[in-house]
Design goal:
four-stranded antiparallel sheet, mainly beta
Length: 215
């Protein structure tokens, strides 16, 4: 995406809605183009990653983190220059992650028909304050920050711009109007601020706590 933290690519080799005899056949993928430095990615598909260290090893990252809603801070684990992570935490479908890499790399999330799709689309238990989400695969109609924000009932929405290494945030005024906007795509990791707690889109997945981090 132009001026965004990553390029989101969908490669269609046929209709995603078609029923195929080989359910493992890859019909497309989502790419996150990472620059040297800090980036955010998400886990849109069921790829078999159970731990943050596994994602970090796949990307060649020096750090991996998640946003802890309880503390309102990023919780980061580090990869030693001699190999080995200082801690770990579980990861799941739809989770947004903070990734630091030393050199540019492309992290591909395979987008497979039928068998490759997650059993359940990601849903989020949002707290009053800041939250990190991924725009679910079934929310392609929410093509702008304002549309996403209105759907969630957010007061602010943003993304991490890896080019500037800064967060780019748009805000809703007291009348619910957005002062500015930016394009959004399925798979986008997004920062969401809310004035009250809620679940989006429907069924909640448990918010991770600091107890999830294992030394």
């Amino acid at each position: 995406m132009k001026n965004f933290l990553f390029v989101l690519m969908l490669l269609f080799v046929g209709s995603l809605l078609a029923v195929e005899s080989d359910q493992s056949n890859v019909v497309g993928y989502i790419d996150y183009d990472l620059i040297a430095g800090n980036n955010t990615i998400a886990l849109p598909m069921s790829q078999g990653y159970a731990l943050a260290s596994e994602v970090g090893d796949a990307v060649g990252a020096s750090t991996v983190g998640y946003f802890n809603q309880s503390t309102q801070l990023w919780q980061i684990i580090y990869n030693s220059p001699f190999g080995g992570w200082n801690a770990d935490f579980p990861v799941s479908n739809g989770q947004a992650l903070w990734i630091t890499v030393e050199s540019a790399i492309r992290f591909s999330a395979e987008f497979c028909s039928i068998g490759g799709l997650p059993e359940n689309e990601a849903t989020y238990a949002l707290v009053a304050g800041n939250n990190m989400i991924m725009l679910p695969l079934n929310k392609s109609s929410l093509s702008s920050a304002a549309l996403v924000g209105d759907s969630i009932g957010a007061s602010a929405l943003g993304f991490f711009n890896s080019s500037t290494q800064l967060w780019q945030i748009v805000y809703a005024d007291s009348f619910g109007e957005w002062g500015s906007d930016f394009a959004t795509f399925i798979g986008d990791p997004l920062l969401v601020s809310k004035d009250n707690a809620g679940t989006w889109p429907s069924r909640a997945i448990p918010a991770m706590s600091s107890k999830s981090l294992r030394d």
